[in-house]
Structures are given as structure tokens and as C-alpha cells.
From TrEMBL:
Subcellular localization, as worded in the UniProt entry: Cytoplasm
PANTHER family reported in the protein's UniProt record: DYNACTIN 1-RELATED MICROTUBULE-BINDING, TUBULIN-FOLDING COFACTOR B
GO cellular component: a single term: microtubule plus-end
Protein name (database record): CAP Gly-rich domain-containing protein
This protein's record includes keyword Protease: no
Originating species: Dichomitus squalens
Any one GO molecular function term: alpha-tubulin binding
Keyword Cytoplasm: yes
Length: 234
């Protein structure tokens, strides 16, 4: 008893991997292939290809009474099934969308519907329909830090503070809220009083920094020499 062969079966609408006995006749094979390809047996023309990309067939299964073994079918070859009369079967209809009626709406009709993504975004104020003013309230924090005052700025290091002079208090373009611009006594800062091309005060490079008001303590803080680096400021 011979072992079955593993083959690929391709047709205009299908592709599958199958296993058949070499004793199976071509006629019997066509009956099985009808269930796979939808092509009636009398419309089938079956070619044996070395691979799916091959252009020339190794054989054509032309005699319904001959077994597959007669044609030398081997493992992993391809059986290409062609429909000789597609007008009498469903061949090609599964992939042909040219005859499918399409549901189309004009932009005006779409905008009037209430069951669309557009309507959902409008109802929930999402994306371009959002109320930006209500989403971004203006911070009205009352900050009692006078410009020109001496100050200490808290750092992430315990018991270590940086001293300097307050040079700016107010809103900025680089972040929301109120920020305090400080000119340090030493080059321990991050900028020269400007951020992202916008200048808020003047100082030497690396002497300027912007911090939140809660990190600033105003008082009589004389200049002292500091040698430390902190990466928490803007």
C-alpha cells in the first residue's frame, strides 16, 4: 500500500493543503475538489505544477479513469484547478466586488445622522469639537514672591538649598501655571533667563532657572559659595 501524497490545491477562489491516496482516480479527485473549489467536476481542468509559481505544468490530469500515481504526483506539488466554464459556477464571484451594491452617503447626509462617529464626537466634545477653554482653566494662583528679593530654592538633596535672586514671577509659554525665575549666585542653573526662545529675564548662561513657587523661600539669604549640581529644574 502506497503512502498518500501531500499537495497544495489552488483555484481562482481557494488555496488549501490536502492529502490524497495515489490510488485515487482523477474522476474521484474531481468530486472531492468540487467541495473545495466550488467547480463542478465536468468543468475542472487539473494541472500538476512543481510549485505555485511554476508557469509550465508537469502534467495534466486528462483521464478521469487514471489514478494520481499514473501521473507521478509527488509530495508538496501543486494541483491547479481551472474552471473551463465559469459562467455556470460560482468561480470568481467570491472575490469579485464589482457587482456588489455599495452603501454611500453624501457629506451632508452623513453629518445629519446621529449614529455615526462624527455625531458621537460632537455629543461628547471630542477632538476638534472639544471646548478647549473649559479644558484649560487659567491658573489664578496668588504668589507673594517679589521680584528682586533674595531667596533659597529647595532641591531634592536633603538640607541643601540653592541661593539666588528672584528675577521673574508669572505665567510662561513652556508650561502651565505660575513659575518663578531665579538668578542663582553660582552657575548651577539651566538657562540664561530664556526657555524655548522666549526670554523672561537676563542673566549669565547656566545661572538662570525656573521653579514652582512652593520651592522658593524669600528672606535674608547672603551670597555663599556652592558647588553642587541638581537636575530638577527647567
Amino acid at each position: 500500500m502506497t503512502s498518500p501524497v501531500h499537495v497544495f490545491v489552488v483555484s481562482p477562489d481557494t488555496r488549501s493543503e490536502r492529502r490524497y491516496e495515489l490510488s485515487l482516480t482523477v474522476g474521484q479527485l474531481k468530486n472531492k475538489l468540487e467541495l473545495i473549489t466550488g467547480i463542478p467536476p465536468h468543468n475542472q481542468s487539473i494541472s500538476v505544477l512543481a510549485s505555485e509559481d511554476a508557469t509550465e505544468p508537469l502534467a495534466v490530469l486528462s483521464d478521469d479513469n487514471r489514478p494520481l500515481g499514473f501521473y507521478g504526483v509527488q509530495d508538496w506539488q501543486t494541483l491547479k484547478v481551472t474552471d473551463l466554464d465559469p459562467t455556470t459556477s460560482f468561480t470568481g464571484q467570491l472575490t469579485d466586488t464589482s457587482q456588489v451594491d455599495k452603501f454611500e452617503l453624501s457629506e451632508t447626509e452623513y453629518a445629519q445622522r446621529q449614529d455615526t462617529v462624527l455625531a458621537y464626537k460632537q455629543r461628547n466634545k471630542i477632538g476638534r469639537f472639544s471646548d478647549r477653554k473649559s479644558e484649560e482653566p487659567v491658573e489664578t494662583q496668588n504668589v507673594d514672591i517679589p521680584v528682586g528679593a533674595r531667596c533659597e530654592v529647595e532641591t531634592s538633596v536633603e538640607d541643601f538649598k540653592k541661593r539666588g535672586t528672584v528675577r521673574y514671577v508669572g505665567p510662561t509659554e513652556f508650561a502651565k501655571g505660575i513659575w518663578v525665575g531665579v538668578e542663582y549666585d553660582e552657575p548651577l542653573g539651566k538657562n540664561d533667563g530664556s526657555v524655548q526662545g522666549k526670554r523672561y529675564f537676563e542673566c549669565q548662561p547656566n545661572f538662570g532657572v525656573f521653579v514652582k513657587p512652593e520651592r522658593v523661600k524669600v528672606g535674608d539669604f547672603p551670597v555663599e559659595e556652592i558647588n553642587f549640581d541638581d537636575d530638577e529644574e527647567i
